[in-house]
């Protein structure tokens, strides 16, 4: 029994040392093109138009193939709002921005010594929406992503990736009649779903 305990301790000590040796911090600088999306309301609709998205993040590898990253990205765009008749109600005053603050988890496939490493990731956080007419608001946001990391012999590497970002906001209450409960109110949500293609330049401080 003591021998089994000793082997158990040695195994986890080796695993911990392996994880410790693979820890590293990376600074990521982001740039990408985010495509437009239409958001439907009860009697109106709006668009978040396409634009250039940029930002930065700090990525921490807690294991050889797994990392967490805190990042900030900003999309400067136009957000035209259309009434029931299809006429734009905010013409000339539709510029805005979406600021994403996200905590991502990313898994890299293959050995860390490979020059090309495919990866998948997902994250959640907040989106700070800026509009000329209503000021700013903070909403729930998430993203999924996938791509490939291209390593060099220097501390620099390049990530090429595709991503899907979403922001959700409560926009009011819808009421329905129930034979059992009577009038029931449900919070109505509107969400954006924007696909994008981008790249990031990474600097590894551990090299």
Commentary on this structure:
The protein is 10% helix and 68% strand. It contains one helix and eleven strands; from the N terminus they run αβββββββββββ. The strands form two sheets. The protein has an eight-stranded antiparallel barrel with strand order 1-4-5-7-8-9-10-11. Strands 2-3-6 form a three-stranded antiparallel β-sheet, with no helix packed on it. The longest helix is centred in the first third of the chain and has 21 residues. The protein is elongated, with a radius of gyration of 23 Å.
Q: In terms of topology, how is this protein built?
A:
Blueprint: H1 2-22, E1 24-34, E2 37-40, E3 45-48, E4 51-63, E5 66-78, E6 81-82, E7 95-108, E8 116-131, E9 135-151, E10 156-178, E11 182-204
Antiparallel strand pairs: 1-4, 1-11, 2-3, 3-6, 4-5, 5-7, 7-8, 8-9, 9-10, 10-11
Total beta-strand segments:
11
Shape type:
elongated
Largest sheet report? 8 strands, antiparallel, barrel
* Individual helix count: 1
Q: What is the typical, i.e. mean, pLDDT?
A: 83
Kindly state the percentage of residues in helix.
10-25%
Distance between the termini: 43 Å
What is the radius of gyration computed over CA atoms, rounded to a whole number of angstroms?
A: 23 Å
Within the largest sheet, what's the order of strands? Answer: 1-4-5-7-8-9-10-11
Sketch the topology as an H/E string, one letter per element: HEEEEEEEEEEE
Approximately what portion of the residues adopt beta-strand conformation? over 45%
- What are the low-pLDDT stretches, counting only 5+ consecutive residues below 50? 1-21, 172-188
What would you call the structural class?
mainly beta
